[in-house]
Every structure is written in C-alpha cells, then in structure tokens.
Amino acid sequence: MNSASEQHFLAGKHIIVAGGGIGALSFCIAFHRLLDDKIQLPPSITIYERDTAIDAVGREGYSLSIRGDAFSGGMQTLQKLGILDEMIAVSNPGDYFTLFDKDFSPLVQFRTPPVEGLPQSSMRIARSKLREVLIKNLPPSVIMNWGNAVKSAHELDNGQISIDLADGSQEICDLLIVADGSNSVIRRALRPEHTLNFIGVTSILARTHALDKLPAPLEQTYGGAIGGDGHFAFVASSDQTSALWSVSYLCDTPREAKSAGTMNDDEIDAVLAEARERTKVFSEPIHTLVNETLRSSVTIFNAKDIVPFRNHGSVIFIGDAQHAMSPFAGNGANMAIMDGYQLADQLIHAKDLNTAVRLYDDLSIPRSKRAIDISHRSITIGHSQGLWKYMWVGIARILGWYFGLSYRDEQELN
C-alpha cells in the first residue's frame, strides 16, 4: 500500500486500453470510482475501439446472463460500480435458468434467493443494452476513440509500449490494457503461444425479428433443452421484444464458421433447413423461433476457449483476450466485468505494477479456469445420448454448483 507521502507508480502515466467492450469499460468506470485521492496525479486513460459509436450499441443482437451467485459475481460488481439498478431497468424478460427436457418441460429450475444486498439473483440483458449503460457511465476524463483499433503493440526497452493504430498513426503508453476479445490481435503478436482451442462443438444460432409476444416460457425463463440424440437447444430473450435460439452438436473438427450477415440467401436457406432438421426432436418454442428468424442474424459458430495465462510486464490482458470461454460457460460477461473491477482495484492499491499484476492474476485465473472446466462438463452432458434421462439429478448437481445452489437446494430439487 502506498502512503500519502509516496508517489504512486501510475502517477502522471498514460494508460491505453485496446478495445471498448465489457471488460474495458468496467475497468475505466472502476478505476475512476476507486481512485478517490489515492493518486495525486492520476494517469490519463485512452480507449481505442474498432467499432463506431453507433455500431457499439446497435449491431449486437444477443443477450447475456449476469449473475449474483458466489462464483460469478457480476451482479455484485455492477452494484459496486453503482450501475446495477440502471442495468436491471433495461434487462430482458426471464431472469432465471431452466434445464429442459426435449419437449421443453422443466427438469430443473435454478431460482435461487438473491445474495444479501442484491435486489435479485440474476438477470438476462441484451449485450447492446449492457454496453450502452457502461458507455453512458464512462468517466469524462477517459478519452474514447471510436473506429480506430490497436493493430499491433511493441514493448520498448524502457518498459513503455508503442502501439500501431488502424489509421496508420502510432502512440506511446506506459501501460497497455488488452481487452480486444477472443481473437485478440495483440495476443497473437505478443503471446503467440496462447491460442484458441476448438472444444468439439458447433452451433447454429440466430435471433428473431421483433415479435408481438415472446413465446412461453421465455417471458419467465431462459435455458437449454437436452434432445437425447446428441443435440442441445438453447433459447432466451435477445432483448425485450425478440428471442435468440441455437442448436449445437458434437464434432471432431470445426466446420467453416459464418458470421451474421456474411451468407447469401441460398446459404441462409440451407442453414435454416439444417437447423430445422437438427431441432426436429424438440417441441415448441424452438420451431416458432426458427421460423421467425431474422435472416441476417444466422450464424455458424465453432466453440473455442483458451487456457488462462499469467500476465507480465506493462501489457495486461483481460477478459476474452486472456481467458476466452465458449458460450457454454454462460459466464464470459461476468468474468469480464469482474476482471475490469479487480484489475482497477489492484492497480490503485498495490505497491507496484508487478504486485498489482500478480494479485489480479491470482484472482482472475482460478475463477476463469473453473468457468471453462464447467463449460466442458456442460457440453458433455447437454449433448449426451441414450440414458441421459437418468442423469438429470447429476446434471442438477453440476449445474447447481455452477449456479451457486447449496446442497440443501439440491435436496429440494431431488
């Protein structure tokens, strides 16, 4: 801890944040909130983000689960940032997870009491809405550069970092926070040994156009259904008027990925026909959701993750850039929010940069490893075949651990 008479190691320094996503914005808000008068000459912070300001809150068509269980901690962290109530106000219908049979009858519902001090235990929120609230609460002192991504970074002999920007310019900083996502270009340049790994499952996913009414049970819950034939379906509200759906299956090698908006009409027709075939074992609401698909949202996605790694020096990786996890973890947003807050906390309160980085990694790596490990178990169970119906108690206990249920809660489920 720095005494009042000591100069903080970040005093007068320049911090650049590569990426303007959830982890990056959480870091900037947390740093400002925790700063108080602990650094007499606070560092300047600049964000470089590849999106335009319009894209940042307009194009993202999927939703995220933010939870308040002891493991996830996203709700608690948003509360510490002073923006939880604002997030809840724009959250989606359906605030708890359900594991369904193939006919969408509930096998297990995870409706846990909220942690003391929280108004509710979890929420589902559109990523665009979550990011919009974060941007709205960005401190005025943070310089936000839209439409100009960090393309590469070079560590200099004096410990500073030189970055190359998409517009062809260069800049020097004292600390680089890398939050440019799972396909991080900076990680590929500086830490090429840490690569994304295909984890054996491919998904077809999309969202619907705006609906007159969300089909049951999405007005109350979201979750996944086990087909028993190797397919797993997921349904959730995408925002307050539309829904997202996916169907996934195990495979030895990844297929050609297709991002939303990159397929022609014939390709979209073929993928939707494949989705209908893969979901034929399931009952409603999956068929309605597929039929009401917004065609431009159709995506083919190969699930990948990365083994979390320790940081060193003046380049600090956070969020998916450090510990990418597949959607089956259901925890990427929670981890990113916690990363931003905990890194800011350590940078402000530690005695030096090396200590701050070590303490941050000590917090981030174990929880992200656990989330990734649980996602692998969830993939195996969700895509199981044959005797899967006799495994639901085991599923409840694994997912109960995942969602923070107590043993007593599990006994009541039994």
In short:
The protein is of the alpha/beta class and 414 residues long. Helix content is 34%, strand content 23%.
What this model shows, in words?
Helices cover 34% and strands 23% of the residues. The chain has helices at residues 22-35, 53-58, 74-80, 84-89, 127-136, 185-190, 265-278, 286-291, 320-323, 332-349, 353-382, 392-403, 407-413; strands spanning 14-18, 44-49, 63-67, 97-100, 106-110, 122-126, 143-146, 150-155, 161-165, 170-173, 175-178, 197-207, 222-226, 231-237, 243-250, 299-305, 315-317. The strands form 4 sheets. The chain has a 7-stranded mixed sheet, with helices on both faces. The chain has a 5-stranded parallel sheet with strand order 7-2-1-11-17. A 3-stranded antiparallel sheet has the order 8-9-10. 45% of the residues are buried. Residues 74-359 form the FAD-binding domain. This is FAD-binding domain-containing protein. Pfam families: FAD_binding_3 (PF01494). The chain crosses the membrane at residues 15-35.
- Beta content: 15-25%
pLDDT < 50 runs, ≥5 residues: 1-5, 401-414
CATH superfamily of the largest domain, please? FAD/NAD(P)-binding domain
Shape, please?
globular
Alpha plus pi helix count: 13
CATH fold description of the largest domain: FAD/NAD(P)-binding domain
